[in-house]
Specification:
It is built from 11 helices and 12 strands. By secondary structure, it is an alpha/beta fold. Strand 4, helix 4 (about 120-130) and strand 5 (about 130-135) form a beta-alpha-beta unit.
């Protein structure tokens, strides 16, 4: 059995079955929802629309991925960092303390789909007359007090590809009617789009089936991936010899920010997959799977849970545990066919990490267990069993 860290799509979804009418789901039903290749470019465009200058600053959480920093730096905007507690919540006192007369905006991150105290932060921003930016990269389909996450800030940014099995796709939502925004989009590289899809198929979660069918599916998916991998290698050689920029090799993940693709939109394939997805079912399965691990780890002294309950309306990204020797467990589970998340292990050189020990601790110790919509209870039981084997192996 192989359990992927992400969900994958079925080939028939590429056709564009629109039976679920997802245009009515936030933020797709928002009149000012603009699509981008990935969230870093949506964030860059949104910050530019706010009109922040190089003499002003933007407040950003100390616990960050990396990729949300460079789009701000590229625009020569000063960044100040505020404290995030070990339970992944904003330290409101620290946030208020570092706001000064040059502060133009505050960016908050709804980690793993769990909402920050956005009502309190929104009040602070209104009192100080500064913009609120919601980073909802993890929080597609999540709600807070019955209202969609991403509808509170002046602008918000989504990364749909974190939750859905799409090769690219992000959204910038403009909630503030006073913000002017014009966006001209171009189609992303088709090769880049389909290469990621081939990776999805290669690494998809396996399901119980006949041996012959499992072998056929594995060989078929491997053949598709190897064909794209070989072609990508040839294109790399071509680019090196002829000194071409090679935008066809752009990948939606990683830490790199490339200004030349900031105008790329979301691919038609991604839109088709979105339109054929059952969002209600996706959210229900993710919540069920999160509760499974919550029950399992609730009283486990070997781990610490950043989230000890699952609030109404939350659509969780994965199940986080704080554990010593996180990297060991990540690798041990991977060897056993379970692709987890060694979450946010990279440290951006511009962040004063010595000032934020909680963020450093989280970066080094959070392990994410997959709970996505492809996983059945049998998959979760397999993860539980392999975790125990990995732990016993470590103790020997």
């Amino acid at each position: 059995m192989y359990i992927s860290s992400k969900p994958t799509f079925f080939l028939n979804q590429a056709i564009g079955n629109k039976s679920y009418g997802n245009i009515s789901t936030f933020p797709f039903n928002h009149t000012r929802c603009h699509f981008f290749f990935s969230a870093r470019y949506a964030l860059a465009a949104g910050v530019q629309a706010l009109g922040i200058t190089s003499k002003q600053n933007l407040l950003m959480p100390s616990y960050n991925c990396w990729v949300e920093i460079d789009p701000i730096k590229y625009q020569d905007i000063q960044i100040k960092y505020y404290r995030i507690r070990s339970d992944l919540t904003v330290d409101l006192d620290d946030l208020k303390a570092i706001i000064d007369d040059k502060t133009k905006a505050v960016l908050i991150t709804h980690y793993l789909g769990f909402p920050q105290p956005v009502d309190a932060i929104s009040r602070i921003c209104k009192e100080r007359q500064i913009f609120l930016i919601e980073d909802c990269a993890h929080a597609f389909l999540s709600e807070f007090n019955g209202k969609p996450i991403g509808s509170f800030g002046d602008i918000s940014v989504f990364s749909f590809r974190k939750t859905l099995p799409i090769p690219n796709g992000a959204g910038l939502i403009i909630n503030n009617e006073n913000i002017t925004f014009e966006h001209q989009i171009a189609k992303p590289s088709s090769f880049s789009t389909y290469y990621v899809c081939a990776e999805f198929l290669k690494h998809r979660t396996t399901k119980q089936s006949t041996i012959a069918k499992m072998i056929f599916i594995k060989v078929f998916n491997e053949a598709i991936y190897l064909s794209f991998f070989f072609l990508r290698s040839l294109l790399r050689i071509f680019r090196k010899i002829f000194n071409r920029r090679g935008l066809y090799l752009v990948y939606p993940s990683g830490n790199q920010y490339r200004k030349e693709i900031s105008h790329w939109g979301m691919s038609s394939l991604s839109k088709n997959i979105i339109m054929s997805s059952n969002f209600e079912k996706i959210k229900d399965i993710r919540r069920r799977n999160f509760r499974f691990f919550l029950n399992y780890f609730q009283n486990d002294k070997r781990v610490t849970l950043p989230f000890k309950e699952l609030p109404d309306g939350v659509c969780p990204l994965f199940f986080p545990i704080i554990i010593e020797k996180r990297d060991y467990f990540y690798k041990a589970l991977k060897k056993r066919g379970i692709a987890g998340h060694d979450w946010w292990g990279d440290f951006h050189p511009d962040v004063p990490w010595n000032n934020f020990p909680e963020a450093v601790f989280l970066k080094r110790n959070i392990l994410g267990l997959p709970i996505h919509q492809d996983l059945s209870l049998k998959h979760l039981q397999a993860i539980e069993e392999e975790f125990e084997k990995a732990y016993q192996s470590m103790e020997r």
